[in-house]
Amino acid sequence: MHPSVHAQTTPDKPAFIMAGSGHTVTYRELNDRSNQGAQLFRSLGLQVGDGVAIMMENHPIYYEVLWAAQRCGLRYTAISSRLTAGEVAYILQDSGAKAFVVSRAMAEVAAEAVKDAPAMPLFMADEAVAPFASFEAERARHPATPVADETPGVAMLYSSGTTGRPKGVKRPLPGGPLTAAEGLTEWARTLYGMDGDTVYLSPAPLYHAAPLGWSMNVQRLGGTVVMMEKFDPEDCLRLIERRRITHVQFVPTHFVRMLKLPEAVRAKYDHSSLKVVFHAAAPCPVPVKEQMIAWWGPLIHEYYAGTEGNGRTTINSADWLTHKGSVGRATLPVELHICGDDGEPLPPRAEGMVFFSGGAKFEYHNAPEKTADSTNQYGWTTLGDVGWMDEEGFLYLTDRKSFMIISGGVNIYPQEVENLLITHPRVADAAVVGAPDEEMGEKVVAVIQPMDWADAGDDLRAELDAYCRANLSGVKRPRVIDFMAELPRHPTGKLYKRLIRDAYWGKTGGTIV
């Protein structure tokens, strides 16, 4: 249940392969380098429970830094490589990190960020530039033997900050032996059949909770991770065939981009090696999932969960086909509850805030008020999503409460409108937000990323308006349809909707026409 074990039993097996370059690191190499990294962190005075921050693109050194932190009891904070210097400085300050490891590609932003962050040891992979020291050179000064007090560390990741300042999710240190299984490891084994023969494709950035967690658990089990430097739909299909991928996690945006490839391109690649495909991070439009199941068969699973680890629901293809749109039922020992604004449980099919009970404990670092806001009077916790549950316990998500549009006193959830628009063949991406309206308070606005930017104009507006009129009630239909060359979407699939909404409320935003 740890790379150190597989370094003894299968030392020459690839722990991971970089998809683009083919660069391969074996379990022996990963074990030795992560031991050296752990020794480096101890030499800096970092003790159990201290934090280290990491900011890289999907890079060959990423895993050795993660496992170095994990095996010496540190809290490791993976920072998005897309953040501004100010945002990075905030996370460095808030997390209390005592070391910062970056890649050369992050040099400009990282150097600016550390000017406003607390003083700490700074390291850079590849060709280091001041004020950063070479991570490889410093690591190489230390022995490839375990630190004397090995104990498992844990991730402390920050939310994407789609509605404000990101929140650090702080969970208790696991304690116990280094090789003890995590809850996610058991989930990987029992629900998705992962083992030492797994070849897992990781198409998303490692700084996000899901790709980081799942790929590290593949390495706990002795499988091989194929890490894409950047997602490309056809490259993804090519890798599935070439590397004989058995497991992969996607987000709905990945599905949409693969489905919009020409049929002749999709038909070129063999996907028969796939055993389990699972997706999460954002609700999947029903037509998109129907097409994926028709293409790849009933091997597609879905789950709903968060970085907080307070609960999850799961659903397989067979159950989804009889409960279309559901994200599944809670998995024991977790229980699911739908509650009103007063925190009291609601009956089946009533819409309210989604709460979990019986799951792991968490807190938002340095934000007791946010921790309190996520907890009701029964001690149940929420991720801030709204939905309803049927009589069989299947959950249907509506949207995040913070994205709700109130127009003329009517609550409108953008997700339903976005799910419709994304199925239009001339639409690459869509976001729906509320904009100020003198009469109604807010009006529904759709911001469209066309498949072809040359289509951005009145003809496409009219076509999409007719499409919405035919499929949505009048109150949900966008009153304005605008265009954006590229929506500010996180590579993990989440949309920075706040940035779009701000453009309509007199704040800074992207270029919208």
Give a structural overview.
This protein has 513 residues and is α/β, with parallel strands linked by helices. Among the domains are: 27-176, Rossmann fold (3-Layer(aba) Sandwich); 404-504, 2-Layer Sandwich (GMP Synthetase, Chain A, domain 3), CATH 3.30.300.30. It contains 17 helices and 26 strands. Strands 2-1-11-10-12-13-14-15-16 form a 9-stranded mixed beta sheet. Strand 5 (100-103), helix 5 (107-113) and strand 6 (122-125) form a beta-alpha-beta unit. The mean pLDDT is 92.
CATH class bucket of the domain at 27-176: Alpha Beta
Q: In the CATH scheme, what's the topology name of the domain at 27-176? A: Rossmann fold
Low-confidence stretches: none
Helical stretch tally: 17
Strand content: 15-25%
In CATH, the architecture of the domain at 27-176 is: 3-Layer(aba) Sandwich
Which structural class do the helices and strands define? Answer: alpha/beta
Q: Give the strand order of the largest sheet, numbering strands 1, 2, ... along the chain.
A: 2-1-11-10-12-13-14-15-16
- Mean pLDDT, to the nearest integer, reads 92
Shape label = globular
Biggest β-sheet: count, sense, barrel? 9 strands, mixed
End-to-end CA span: 52 Å
Report the count of strand segments.
Answer: 26
- Work out the radius of gyration: 23 Å
Percentage of residues assigned to helices:
25-40%
